[in-house]
Amino acid sequence: MSEQRQLCLSGKGVTKVYGHGKTKTIAVNDVDFEFYSGELISIVGESGSGKTTLIKMLLGLTSVTEGEINFLGEPRDISTKHKKKEYWKGIQAIFQDPYSSYNIFSKIDTVLLDCIHMRGGRRLPKEQKIEMMREACSFVNLKFDEMTNKYPFELSGGQMQRLMIARIFLLKPKILLADEPTSMIDACSRATILDFLLKLRDEVGMTIIFITHDMGLAYYVSDTVFIMEKGKIVEHGSANDVILNPKAAYTIQLLNDIPKIHDPWEFSRNRREVSGAG
Ligand code: ADP
Ligand code: MG
Asked: Residue 19 C-alpha to ligand 1 middle, in angstroms?
């Protein structure tokens, strides 16, 4: 095939146990994974399969009970506040509920300006900062001039999620973790958000880890798919291999649960051309 795939984030034996005794839950159970640069990777599984817990460990928001995580080929070190801050320059997330991710008392221009400052742009001239914010808004089809002086809660769910992506555009992390970013917004905005994720991969070169319980969405966007069941990764591979030729019983069950409108023929026809896959 073409160019060498570059390892970006990987894990070995990654495990998360919550509680102990009778309340013990093994949310993520001894998983291995390798995520490659510039890919859009989906992690698919039903509610409770451990997807969010895995994302929180990758982000460093919750501790890893056992196992190791490597970032850009090196063991990840987030042992101090400073190292964690450095790590977050390379990896960022957007979550299901966009309203929960903001300080709702910050105006939108402040939210965007903070991103520029986090990237070391505090001393840039004001006009240049405005130009950067304008570019970020236009990346997600928002008008910056209509955003200034507004508060996040004045936007719709779909607009909020687009603003989250505008933030990511400014922060330019190597990796974006997107935890069910479309599940709380209307169907109409849903496809748009997915297209912006693809645009981040294609135009900014970001590696995207997209969490979903929806096999159809995963097929629409992914290069690579990981299937999670009860804390375990039961199958992974290229989106075509996993979804058109599933091996694990659980994957087959997830595919059977999809309404018939998405049969494999429909999948092939609607599938976007993705880099390296066709
Ligand atoms: P998903 O995102 O796939 O729905 P989660 O990672 O949220 O799955 O949850 C996996 C399992 O871990 C579930 O059984 C859930 O109840 C449990 N769990 C998640 N967060 C916590 C927590 N903070 N304390 C205890 N148990 C948790
Ligand atoms: Mg979740």
From this structure: 11
Q: Domain range spanning residue 127?
A: 82-191
Which pLDDT value is given to residue 59? 96
Rg of the chain (C-alpha set): 19
Number of domains the chain contains: 2
93 and 186 share a domain?
Answer: yes
3-state secondary structure (DSSP) of residue 237: strand
Half-sphere exposure of 275 (CA within 13 A, CB side): 17
Least confident of 5-19, 173-187, 254-268: 254-268
Report which DSSP code applies to 195. Answer: H
DSSP annotation of 272: P
Q: Are residues 158 and 252 in the same domain?
A: no
Q: Is the alpha carbon torsion for 263, 266, 267, 268 positive or negative?
A: positive
d(Cα 204, Cα 198) in Å, to the nearest integer? 10
The answer to whether position 246 is within a domain reads yes
Closest C-alpha to 96, from 179, 160, 191: 179
pLDDT tens, residue by residue, 102-116? 676 789 999 999 999
Whether residues 186 and 262 share a domain: the answer is no
Pairwise CA distance, residues 278 & 276, whole Å: 6
The predicted model scores a pTM of 0.90
27 pocket-lining for ligand 1 (C-beta < 6 Å): yes
Does ligand 1 have an atom closer than 6 angstroms to the CB of 10? no
Q: Is the CB of 2 under 6 A from ligand 1?
A: no
Same domain, 263 and 178: no
> Is position 6 within any domain?
no
The alpha helices in 94-156, defined as continuous H runs, are 108-118, 126-139, 144-147
